[in-house]
Amino acid sequence: MRQIAILIGALAFAGCAALAPGPGSVRIGDTEAQVRATLGVPTMERKMATGTTAWYYATGPSGFYTWRVLFNSAGAVTEYAQVLTAANFQAMSAGASRDAVLDQFGPPMERMSFPRTATEAWTYRWMDGTLEMIAEALFDARTGSLKSIALVRDPAFSSTPSDGGSSR
Fold it and tell me: Domains of the chain (ranges plus CATH)?
């Protein structure tokens, strides 16, 4: 009986893993129906300014990966990529709109407003190789334009002690 329970648990885990986005989960030319059957309901769907449809699969509210699937007007996949990368963050230039940032990266992990400084911050958690990182997109709250993106080590995973390494 115990072996059956273990087998059922292993199969359930394998089924969940099959739905997780990752390299090779989606192929160029796949249809929207095939992507939905493979990955499930996207975290966010957007119609981009170019007319392209984008689906985003964020790996949890505080996950490190967001997979973007782009579809052409016929509903076929034209691009499938993990978009939370150093190159993508560094390519986003000051002055970009909130929509441009959403189009590139999908939904942020967290949004915070700072009325006194008329700024808004969007936080993305991502991996730089084996390092857990944070990308903090800072917007002018009045215009909605991007002021900067700061890339820093995620303090939740930093190995530096909070007391600066001093011993008492």
Answer: 19-83 (3.30.1450.10), 85-168 (3.30.1450.10)
